[in-house]
Amino acid sequence: MTESWVTQSEAFSRLTAGEQTRLARLRPMQVPKNQTLFHPGDIAEGFVIVLDGQIDVYLTGPSGREILLYSVSPGQSCVQTTVGLLGQQAYTGEAITAMDCKVVLIPRVLFTELMETSALFREFVFSAFASRVQGMMHVLERVAFHKVEARLAADLLGRAEQGVVKATQAVLAAHIGSAREVVARQLDAFAKRGLIERERGAIRLLNREALEKIAEISHDV
Known about the structure:
CATH topology of the largest domain: Jelly Rolls
Number of domains: 2
Largest sheet: 4 strands, antiparallel
Low-confidence stretches: none
Distance between the termini: 58 Å
Strand content: 15-25%
Number of helices: 9
Number of strands: 10
Helix content: 40-55%
């Protein structure tokens, strides 16, 4: 017999047999890359469990500028969904699959029942929520107190594969909480200093050591 997604999940393996059976009836869904799962103003229909892949949640300002609030990977939760289900609040951000994903949606009714009756389920939800809020505080800290060049250098280093970064300026800007025009100017500055080389559709890192030193800068903007 094929093992269900519930027993494969460390978070739910300690639930009672009855609770696991109810969850096991929910079928995992395959969601392709670049699929929008919710928009600002939408109402949460259920609690999403990510089994494989990654979902990125963005906040868009009036000017159209985006910032990546957090990413949801297996074992993590979406704070906006938790707030929406527990606080009856509409989404303020937008969720997009960063890659092909495998997810399970726990309907609102079942989610509410488990929150009321299962201490272990509540523990998972609140623990994941606390961890996610802490992560968002780190994002705010970086945006508020770290210079753009330091944030960009750190992001480039984290993305590089064999010394090459394949990401648009818009994506880089969203991930470091800045504007695309600012990122473009900073990339030009890095290139003039011989730290990177801009290629068609890619950025090649030429001096990792110098970029690592820049990434350590944490002075006020």
